[in-house]
Amino acid sequence: MKEGPDIARLGALIGDPARANMLTALMSGKALTASELASEAGVTVQTASSHLSKLESGGLIHPRKQGRHRYFSLADDDVGGVLESLMGLAAKKGHMRTRTGPKDPALRQARVCYNHLAGERGVQMFDSLKTRKFLVETDEVLNLTKRGRAFVEDLGIDISNLSTNRRPLCKSCLDWSARRSHLAGALGTALLDRFYDLGWAAREPGTRIVNFTKNGEVAFLKTFGG
Amino acid sequence: MKEGPDIARLGALIGDPARANMLTALMSGKALTASELASEAGVTVQTASSHLSKLESGGLIHPRKQGRHRYFSLADDDVGGVLESLMGLAAKKGHMRTRTGPKDPALRQARVCYNHLAGERGVQMFDSLKTRKFLVETDEVLNLTKRGRAFVEDLGIDISNLSTNRRPLCKSCLDWSARRSHLAGALGTALLDRFYDLGWAAREPGTRIVNFTKNGEVAFLKTFGG
DNA sequence: ACAATGCTTCGGTTAGCATCGAAGTATGAA
DNA sequence: TTCATACTTCGATGCTAACCGAAGCATTGT
Q: Looking at this predicted complex, what is its ipTM?
C-alpha cells in the first residue's frame, strides 16, 4: 500500500486526462450528466462512471439525482478556484494546448469561472471595484464597503439575500489568462447573473465564453470605468 | 498517444506520491539536494533523479548547480501558490496528514557547508558584508570591493594567496536551514579557517556543527554587526 | 595520479490503473 | 407487462510509469 501526502491524491485525480477533461467541462458552471461527461472526455460510459465515482469520493464533484439522470457539478467554489489556478500555471509554463482557434481570444476576454465572470472583463470589473473603494482587501480578506454595498444595490442586486448564505460574499480568484485577480464568491455569482438578466451578456452554448451584446458592452464599460 | 488538457500534465506531476513528497518538502522555501529529496520521498537516488527531471521539464522546480551538488527549489511563487491552494483544498476535504518534524537546532545556527560557514551565522555574515558594501552582486556574480578587500586583510587573511587559485574567490551558496545565501568560495573557506585560528570556533567532532566559544561569539558579533 | 561522493542514464521487472465488453440495476415510457 | 434509456458493477486485458541494480559521468578531496 502506497502512502503519499494529501496533495498527491488530488493531483492524481486531476492528473488523468479523462478526469481532467471532465473537470474542465464542469468549469463552465453547468451541471452535466454522466453521458455528457463521457463524451466530453472521449471515453465510454462505463469508464466515465468509474472516473466519476472517484472524483466524487475525492470530494471534487457533487452528484444530483434527477429522474433517471445524474447531474454532476463541481463540489464548491474552492474546487473551481484550484482548477483555475492550475490552468493559469499550465498556461504560464507553456504547456497550453496550442489550438489557436477563434475561441481562444474570446475566452481571454470574458468567460465564466465556474459561476462568476473571469477574463479581462472580470479583471477590469475587479480593479474598478477596488480603485473606487467599493471593495477593500485587508489581511487577505475581501470586504464590501458601505459605498460598495450601495453601488451593488443600485445595480438591482439584493444583498441581504446573499449574506444569509454561509458562502463567503466576496472572494478573489486568480485569473487564468491575466495573472490578476477577479471577483468570486456569492457577489461574483450575483453580478454575473445580473448581467444576464439585464441583457448585457449571454453564454455561448457549450463553451465557457461569455458574449457581451453591443449595448451590454457600452453599459458595462460605463459602469466599471474604462 | 494520449492527449489531455494542460492541467492533466500538472496534475499527473503532482499526483505521484514521491513527487508530491518532494514538492511539499520544497514548500519550506529551502533548496534541497537530489539526495535529500530522495530520502524525503523514500525512494532511491536513481528514482529521485528521474522524478526531478520530470518536475524540471514540467517547469515546477528549478535546479541550481553548486559544486557536485544540485540544489532544487520551487520554480517561482506561482508554483508555491498552487501547491498551497491544493493543500488547502485537501485539508478542507479532511485528508490532511501531519508532516516532518524539525531538525537539529545547533545545525541551524552554525555548521560547515563543505568548507565554509553556513547556518544563521553564515547568513548573518553574508548579509553584513553586503550591507556594508564589502561584497557586491552584479549579474549573479559576487565581487569583493576595495573596502572589502581591506576589511578582510585586517582580519589577517592573505588575499593574494587566494586569488592565484583557479577557484572563484567569492561565491554565494544557498543555505540549508534559512533559504538565504551565505558566502562560499575561496574567501568563505579562508574566513572559516581564520575563525578556527583565532579560536573563535571549533568543529564538533563527527558532525557538521560549528561551536562558537564565548569570546568567539562576542568577537563575531562585533565584527559582523548584530 | 587515485579514491570518494553526488548524481544521471540504461535495462528489465512489476504493480497499478485506465479501458472496454458484457451483464446487472433503476427509472421512465408504451 | 414489455421495451428503452441512463447508469453502475464485474471481469479481463493491456499499457504506462514507478522502481531499483548496475554502470557511467562529473566534481572534489588527498
A: 0.71
Question: Residue A201 belongs to what domain range?
Answer: 99-223
Q: Could you read off the pLDDT of A8-65 as tens digits, one per residue?
A: 999 999 999 999 999 999 998 888 999 999 999 999 999 999 999 999 999 999 998 8
Taking contacts as CB-CB distances below 8 angstroms, the residues of chain A near B95 are: 6, 9
**Domain end marker among B74, B101, B128:** B101
Q: Does B63 touch chain A (CB under 8 A)?
A: no
DSSP for B91-128 reads HHTT----------HHHHHSEEETTEEESHHHHHHHHH
- Give yes or no: residues A130 and A64 share one domain: no
Based on the fold, state whether residues B73 and B140 are members of the same structural domain: no
Nucleic acid strand C within 7 Å of A11 CB: no
Q: A6, A47, A174: best mutation site toward chain B, by most B Cβ within 10 Å?
A: A6
Give the total number of structural domains in chain A. Answer: 2
A-chain CB neighbours of B4 within 8 Å are 16-18, 20-21
**Alpha helices, DSSP H only, in B58-184?**
77-92, 105-109, 120-131, 146-154, 159-163
Contact call for B86 and A10, based on CB within 8 A: yes
One domain, residues A125 and A196: yes
Q: Which of B54, B78, B101 is the last residue of a domain?
A: B101
Residue A108 CB contacts under 8 Å (≥ 6 apart), including other chains: A119, A120, A177, A178
Q: Is A57 within 7 A of strand C by CB distance?
A: no
